[in-house]
Structures are given as C-alpha cells and as structure tokens.
Write a structure and sequence with these properties.
395 residues, alpha/beta, TIM Barrel, 8-stranded parallel β-barrel, two-stranded antiparallel ribbon, 16 helices, 12 strands
C-alpha cells in the first residue's frame, strides 16, 4: 500500500481509504459477515483509514460489531465519522451525537471527526453560534476527538473562506476528473494544500459512474491508453496523480473491488500518470461533457443567491443527469440543496430577480435554466418531503 503524509500531523495514511457507507447488504440489512471480510482484508492490504457517518443507516453499529469481534483491530485504523448538522440545535446536541456515535462504534474516541456536508458559509455560522469551537477544544482535551474537519458540498467560491473560518485539521471534498470545477474542485484542492491541510477525497469514481456507466465514446478513449485500459484504475490514478490528495475513499462492497483498487493504489504515485493516460482522460472527459446542457463552470459569480439557491450545484446535478443518468442527477441535486444542514433550497425557490444572470461571465440565462432543472430533477412535493426527512433525522 502507498502511504501519504498528513502535512498537519505527520501521520502516515493509506492512499486508499475504505468508505463504509456501501457495506454489502442482504434484504436491506448490512451483512456483518461479508462486511467483516472486507474490513479485515482491507486492513491486511494496508488500508488504515475507515470512513462512516452518523446518518449511514446501521453503518456505525456494523463497524462497532466488527471491532468487537476482532480485538486489536481498532488500534490499527484511523476511524472517521461525521456529525449530523440537522440534529444539532444546541451545544448539548453536539455532545449527544458524538456520544451516540462512540457507543455504536464501541470505541472511546474518533480519530477523524467531520462536520457532515457543509454547503455554505451560512451553515458554518449556524454551527459556530452553538459554541462549536469551544466544544471541539473540550472534546479534544478529553480525548474523544483526535482531528476535526468537514466534508464539503457547496459552491467553489465559499470553500476557501470556510477553510479560514476555523482551525481545521483536515477537509473532505468530492473530486474526480469530471468534477474539477464542481464544488471545491481543483481550486479548492489547491487552497487546502496552500494552508497545509490534508485532503480526503470522496467520490473519486463519481458513485461508480466513471466505472461502468461511461459513454461508449469515452470508454473507447480510455481503452486506447495502452498503459491502463481499465476505466476504474485510470480514474483512481487521475485522483492520486495530484500530490495534494492525501486519501481517496472508495466504497468497495466486494473483495474483488478491494483487491483491484488496492493494487492500483500501490503504484499510483503523485505525478505518475503518463502523457497518453492524461490525454485519454481529457478526451473521455470531453465526450462526457458533450452531453452537458448548461455551460456552467462553477465559478460562483452568481452567488450568493438572495433566496439561498446553490446555482452551480443545481447545474452540476442537471448536467450529471444527462451524462450519468437521471437518478444520479437527482441524488446530487438533493445532496447539494442543503438538506443535511436543515436549510434546504431548491431551483423552485428562484424568483427570477435576474441578479445571477447579470453576474454570470458565461452569459447563462440562469432563471430560465433553473426552471429546466426544476422540471427535470424536482419531483412534485420534494421540498415538503425533504423537510419531513430533516425533521425525522433531527429527532
């Protein structure tokens, strides 16, 4: 396994991390035995970073059961889980969520604790108003939290200010060759590196869309790169080619996937992508992008929207729905809406004031395109369903 250095702590982290959200399941329930085999094999192959979250149904408890079955396993890994913002209305709620996670995981501390799915500066301000900074300091002193970070799903232009809003130990961003200008993107990766922060990457395969669901023309371009004909390996190597990437998470639900990705991680050193491979990725990207409907670069000049609409993320989800399927687009749309911070805003919140269009350097008719987003991705009653879901999560 290749290891990369956390620039803040000097800790050595495996370049490949195990995303536990996609543990194998049977009849809707996590298969503990199958999941245990994956975790043990991952650790045997050198993976030392495991990622879960409070809201991943049954996931923390499953991981806790695996730790309980295998004494000594917990000390071999860096364990990451996440704080669910919708549940946090007071500082006491922060402590209650952490305590519940520790109970489920059957451990007395979390090595990497993240604020889950921060989408805007406003989300951070709400959290800070609860006394989050003092609370984190107390939890660190008590040994319940090792390092504190956040996962990000907001617009590019709000990422750097969030990095500077608090003394973070690390951050987590969505990053792959189709998302260089989506959410934090390449600019965000560079911003984190400039501040000496390790970066954990999620969705290096865009939820598998860069593996099995590439357009035929894009796959043909990757096949032509003779050094690496496998789209999965090449997509992962593209991420690891960036020196600022510390860990790339992959939700591997089979031993076969684990073996392949671990073998790829062994050789995916920074700046090791050949010119032929880099060219193939660029051509594949162009084929995928040709299906995009809105030429949004994610620059964020249209923000802030006075009604809270995350315009670049709406367009990113809309484009993804054509490139990778409507379900993928809808999932992305809901995630980026702010649902998980309890303050969701959708394309339907647009009142066509036109301020965004006047600021857009691409001269996009943003109100018109937001209407198209709503028609394609916003099923009737979605805002009400999201509010109901948020209330359930907040209990």
């Amino acid at each position: 396994m290749q290891f990369r250095t956390d620039p803040r702590t000097g800790k050595m982290l495996s370049a490949l991390g195990l995303g536990c959200m996609r543990f194998p399941a049977t009849a809707g329930r996590i298969d503990i035995d199958a999941s245990e085999r994956i975790v043990l094999d991952a650790v045997e192959r050198g993976i030392n970073y495991l990622d879960t979250a409070y809201i991943y149904s049954g996931n923390e408890a499953a991981l806790g059961e695996i730790f309980s079955r295998n004494p000594g396993l917990r000390t071999k890994v860096n364990l990451a889980t996440k704080l669910p913002l919708p549940r946090c209305r007071t500082q006491d709620d922060l402590g209650a969520c952490l305590t519940r996670s520790l109970e489920r995981l059957r451990t007395d501390h979390v090595d990497h604790y993240l604020v889950h799915n921060v989408t805007s500066a406003a989300a951070w301000e709400r959290l800070a108003s609860l006394g989050f900074e003092d609370w984190v300091l107390h939890q660190k002193e008590a040994g319940r939290i090792g390092l504190i970070g956040f996962s990000y799903h907001g617009p590019e232009n709000e990422f750097a200010p969030l990095l500077d809003a608090f003394d973070w130990d690390f951050c987590q961003i969505q990053y792959n060759y189709m998302n260089e200008h989506f959410q934090a993107g390449t600019a965000g990766l560079a911003s984190a590196a400039e501040r000496g922060l390790p970066v954990i990457v999620m969705e290096p395969l865009l939820g598998g869309k860069l593996a099995s669901e590439l357009p035929r023309e894009a796959k043909a371009e990757l096949d032509a790169a003779k050094e690496s004909t496998d789209p999965v390996r090449l997509a992962l190597r593209w991420v690891w080619d960036h020196p600022a990437v510390t860990v790339a998470l992959s939700g591997m639900d089979s031993l076969e996937q684990l073996m392949q990705n671990a073998e790829t991680a062994e050789r995916a050193l920074p700046d090791s992508l050949s010119s032929a491979e880099a060219r193939a990725v660029q051509l594949a990207k162009e084929h995928v992008s040709s299906s995009y409907k809105v030429p949004c670069t994610g620059c964020g000049y249209c923000l802030p929207c006075p009604h809270g609409v995350n315009i670049p993320s709406c367009f990113g989800a809309y484009n993804a729905s054509f490139a990778h399927g409507r379900i993928q687009g809808m999932q992305q749309y809901i995630t980026a809406s702010g649902t998980m911070v309890g303050d969701a805003h959708f394309a339907s919140d647009c009142v066509r004031c036109g301020a965004c269009a006047r600021a857009c350097p691409q001269h996009i008719d943003i109100p018109r395109e937001l209407s198209a987003v709503r028609r394609r991705l916003q099923i009737p009653g979605l805002p009400a369903l999201v509010r109901l879901g948020t209330r359930i999560i907040s209990r």
